[in-house]
């Protein structure tokens, strides 16, 4: 499953949740404490996203946006319901 993400690097704490209407469609907002330097924020987002969706970090790979705040990750597994809860709130 493809997951659009809006990254907020350099945040005070890691947080996954919220919606951002970005260039790849409705995106999940992921704030991480890591700086946007040498791929550190991207790796932190990959791990935070995996934790929030309940999958192993190895099940999350970057598809688009290595140097952008707007990224698309591919997640192995059935995470559609959890993704919708994080991005859009409980039903």
Explain this structure.
- This protein has helices at residues 40-53, 80-88, and strands at residues 2-8, 15-22, 25-31, 60-64, 70-75.
- It has one domain: Conserved Hypothetical Protein Mth637, Chain: A (2-Layer Sandwich), CATH 3.30.1200.
- It is 25% helix and 36% strand.
- It is globular and about 35 Å long.
- The longest helix has 14 residues, at 40-53.
- It has two helices and five strands.
- It is an alpha+beta fold.
- Strands 2-3-1-5-4 form a five-stranded mixed beta sheet.
Characteristic terms for this protein:
91 residues; alpha+beta; Conserved Hypothetical Protein Mth637, Chain: A; 25% helix; 36% strand; globular
Topology:
Elements (H helix, E strand, L loop, with lengths): L1 E7 L6 E8 L2 E7 L8 H14 L6 E5 L5 E6 L4 H9 L3
Parallel strand pairs: 1-3
Antiparallel strand pairs: 1-5, 2-3, 4-5
Radius of gyration: 12 Å
Report how far the terminal alpha carbons are from each other. Answer: 20 Å
Tell me what portion of residues adopts beta-strand conformation: 35-45%
- Residues in helix, %: 25-40%
Short note summarizing the structure:
This protein has helices at residues 40-53, 80-88; strands at 2-8, 15-22, 25-31, 60-64, 70-75. The protein is α+β, with helices and mostly antiparallel strands.
């Amino acid at each position: 499953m493809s997951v659009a993400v809006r990254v907020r690097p350099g945040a005070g704490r890691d947080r996954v949740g919220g919606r951002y209407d970005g260039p790849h469609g409705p995106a999940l907002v992921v704030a991480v404490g890591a700086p946007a330097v040498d791929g550190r924020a991207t790796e932190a987002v990959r791990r935070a996203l995996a934790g929030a969706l309940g999958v192993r970090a190895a099940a999350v790979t970057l598809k688009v946006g290595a140097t952008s705040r707007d990224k698309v990750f591919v997640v192995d597994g059935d995470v559609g319901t959890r993704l919708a809860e994080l991005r859009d709130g409980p039903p």
